[in-house]
Description:
Layout: E1 3-8, H1 12-28, E2 33-39, E3 43-45, E4 59-61, H2 63-69, E5 71-82, E6 87-92, E7 97-101, E8 104-107, E9 111-113, H3 121-124, H4 131-143, E10 155-159, H5 163-180, E11 187-192, H6 206-216, E12 218-222, E13 226-230, E14 233-236, E15 241-243, E16 246-249, E17 253-255, E18 272-273, E19 286-288, E20 293-294, H7 308-327, E21 340-344, E22 350-354, E23 359-363, H8 364-378, H9 386-392
Amino acid sequence: MTKRILVIEAGFAGMWSALSAARLVDEQDAADVEIALIAPEPHLHVRPRLYETGAAGMKAPLRDIFDAVGVKFIQGTVERIDVERNEVEGTGTEGDTFTLGYDRLVLATGSRLFRPGIPGLSEHAFSVDQVDEAAELEAHIARLAERPDTPARNTVVVAGGGFTGIETAAEMPARLRAALGERTDVNVIVVDRNRELGADLGRGPRPVITQALDELGVTWRLGSAVSAVDAGGLTTSDGHRIDASTVIWTAGVRASSLTAQIPAQRDPLGRLHVDRNLRVKGVDNVFATGDVAYAATDDEGNYAMMSCQHAMNLGRSAGHNVAADLLGLASVPYSQPKYVTCLDLGPWGAVYTEGWEREVRLVGAEAKELKQRINTEWIYPPSADRAEALAAADPRRIVVA
């Protein structure tokens, strides 16, 4: 009787989970094991690049790769998980509902931008969280030239001074001038509740970040949260008004809401606590990976970030271990002790750091070259060559990107 490993979603962690499980199944010639992946479409959305232009094209096709390695793709969206019955319920592309059983489940449903109940936020703020949302922002910027030349039209406010907010803000002066004219006096402002820019990035790269943004003409307003957004701009918690035709919300993400359907412990971001094999603690047949997994990267107390860098290797480990568990083979515990960051700073360049203390190693054009390689090569799927794809999915092949 055929046994099924079911992977939910085709993001970085889901894609690599499916490929890694296929690698071990192929190695063991386990013809009685089916690997299925269910997602709304057979594409990897290259989310780390959505602050760039051309957002609508930031997708990589997956159908040929899945066909090459023997992963069954099911188009649809999972809405309910029943861990007692080992099955999921979902909706297909035509609105039809379905129920699908599994022997082992890999939850790889990622994260979404967190939008708190700030008045006007959902109606008036843009984001770069998903492909369609980033494309909507891009179309909006292109249409700004149709409006009267006012300070508000020429102003972009980026709400959130974290990784995504900084990368987005660094791109905005050039993007505005491309839309409005090179001589336009543009104004890009970062608003953040923290007292320091890039608070989560630590002290190491902060001088580089502030220098770059300053030279790009980006300003910031710190220690003040957004209290309301409207069609003409926003108001901060200290009563300051900023008139702007464009407000971009980047302040934080939360794990997929499907994690709430797994009867297990979650962290404040909604991530499921997993063991070193990425099995959800207390739920034997469910593994979690990527942004839905609260996973230790080492024995020093560090945990995976909600990032592409960690998701790729979390996926490789989860896929191997879920297949190994089903086949009665040895697991490969997840470990990713090396941590790096490479922050894009627009036309100025980039800053590359190593270690959890984020020691700066490269800045400017040299770091930018590395960032471009990461964004255009390293994070993309392998080719549809069967041998190459399976080899790339080996969990012992740790990739830092």
